[in-house]
């Protein structure tokens, strides 16, 4: 059920303010909040792996919070392991199904299916190898300024990725806070997202 992705509307002092809580994690979460979710901190990239998000979704095996010591939460991401053959059919189907769910909340996504110019991985049976080699990108995005997102978000980004081989295939969704770009400039935050 996708209700866990829907913005929660709060009435504050007579005004309506949208608050986004992916997997029940407030974008205003503090370090004690993340620790209370049995978060494990990975110091290199300043990422918290959240073991018990307030609203878990069984489809996602990992929920990660990119955290800045100065600005707090930069992004909340979740990874869904999917089955796919080398043509990427299962991966595309999983991303497209999740995109359809999120489009009911955020409207039409900006899709991207791109193979880098000059790539030799052009055969349909090399689709997933192209993703692994970072020569192919299959994603969908909702971006502030292009779509009507809640004011606490700068973007919702989805993509297909793999581990080191084509055996580990993931669909990742990332919710970026409104100040994401500023948040990622904090020297204590990894620029890798």
What would your notes on this structure say?
The longest helix has 18 residues, at 89-106. Residues 1-18 have low confidence and may be disordered. By secondary structure, this protein is of the alpha+beta class. It has one domain (2-184). The strands form 2 sheets. The protein has an 8-stranded antiparallel β-sheet. 35% of the residues are buried. It is globular. The chain has 4 helices and 10 strands.
Stretches where pLDDT falls below 50 for ≥5 residues?
1-18
Describe the biggest sheet?
Answer: 8 strands, antiparallel
Biggest β-sheet: strands ordered side by side in the sheet: 3-4-5-6-10-9-8-7
How large, in whole angstroms, is the Cα Rg?
A: 17 Å
N- and C-termini, Cα separation: 26 Å
Mean pLDDT: 85
Supply the helix-strand structural class: alpha+beta
Number of E-state strands:
10
Gross geometry: globular
Strand content: 35-45%
Protein topology:
Elements: E1 8-12, E2 15-19, H1 31-36, E3 39-42, E4 47-50, E5 62-68, E6 72-82, H2 89-106, E7 110-115, H3 127-132, E8 136-143, E9 153-162, E10 169-177, H4 180-184
Antiparallel strand pairs: 1-2, 3-4, 4-5, 5-6, 6-10, 7-8, 8-9, 9-10
